[in-house]
Amino acid sequence: MGGILAGLGWVFSQADWRISKPEQVQIQGNQYLSDATIREWLAIPYPKLIMELAPAELTARLLERGSISSVKIDRTLLPPHLLVRVEDLPPVARIIRDDSTDSQIFVDELGRQLPLSSYHSKIWQSSPKLALRAPSKGTCPDWKQLYLAIQTSPVAIETIDCRNPQNLILQTELGKVRLGAISDKSRLNSQLQQLDRLRDWKKHIDVAEVDYLDLENPDAPKFQLKQSRSIEPKFSPQFQLH
Prior knowledge:
The chain is built from 6 helices and 15 strands. By secondary structure, it is an alpha/beta fold. The chain starts with a helix and ends with a strand. The radius of gyration is 26 Å and the shape is elongated. The longest helix has 13 residues, at 185-197.
């Protein structure tokens, strides 16, 4: 028995049983993240005996890094290589750090931020249209819920500004909209539905007078004027202008 174990130890110590280079880590299933990014996240110290690489540990490492929803890792001895199958998540928004410049940071639907360099080159050429103004660290509070509501909005949303979680601002196809504090899903959906009902507001009021549409209370929409004065609505008594 001792001789058998010693023999096995000698066999596995040979170079042919090692993962010695990145090409021995085969990546499958990734539609958005690059192979190089996934290999970097695995952080395998080459060379490494293949039997010393624990699939469960490597799986946890990938899921922790982000933008991956599932992982399956298999070890193969002949020839020695790792087969890593992943389901990755697409970037859904790009971060804007100031008023004029897009950063090279993208956000997925779970709120994980990754640099543009983490993705396939095809993503570089077709970056997400949705822009996000977020706090300096992290994304919006309740980002997953917020993004789901925005995604299903009947009105196109161009920019989400959640730098102040008590004053959520959207830039939409209908103009600038204030929603107030980030709230529960049902209230957010009510605000977006009310926005859809107000598609024709520009036909009834001087656009140049309006700073933004205030839907903090979706049952009582208001217009915030650029000047500190009021104007009377010409089309519906439900609007309150201030």
